[in-house]
């Protein structure tokens, strides 16, 4: 009998809390594994174009390298691409600190772009998993379109020639900060000055917001719904403005009324009244 009871205890199903903790642990493990796989893929497909300068390097990339070298040496502080009044020189400002630390080379010039590629892949994976609701392993599939493009596209999004990978980065940042107007506007302005194609991301975001309803649901009816929701969440407050001396049921409200309405004044008929 004792052995039978022990076997029944061991064969009992786990508690809901234990199952929930196990599911969270499994999801966390899948998330880290998927992120590691995506980062490894992006790193492997970028090694040739970053660390072998003969793979793809031209005069436009050399101009950005010259701008970064002048920044590192303190000789110039260019705002836009040399010889132009547009295309913000963000890539040069990103490469200048790397030049100071690791020296001037093609690899150090492209290293910030490698980090941007890794960051964009992670932001895409995070958005598809947490906002779309896909499992991490399933979210990897659409991310592969960015993580494993053709060799020609890979060379272009790793080339510091004015911002080929910039629209991808700014689109992801604009989407992630869509509920924070200041940051969203900052990334849009910076991205538009660097690469005007960032405007497409903002237009797409406005279209999504219009279709999803926030703009259409604004107005008195929407405000009334929000006010009703707030009233439901807040506890009811008893007014208790008038009470007679010696009435103990009104004493808890008397201190609150004194704090809100000022000193309590006595009415001629013996009834106290809070405020004017």
Number of helices: 12
Strand neighbour order, sheet with most strands: 1-3-2
Q: Biggest sheet, open or closed, and with what strands and sense?
A: 3 strands, antiparallel
Percent in helix = 55-70%
Structural class: mainly alpha
Tell me the strand percentage band: under 5%
Q: How many domains?
A: 2
**Unreliable spans:** 219-224, 239-243, 263-267, 270-276
Query: Radius of gyration, Cα only, in angstroms?
Result: 31 Å
What coarse outline follows from CA principal-axis ratios? Answer: globular
Average pLDDT for all residues: 76
**Terminal residue distance:** 79 Å
List the helices and strands in order.
HHHHHHHHHHHEHEE
Question: Which oligomeric form is depicted?
Answer: single chain
- Total strand segments: 3
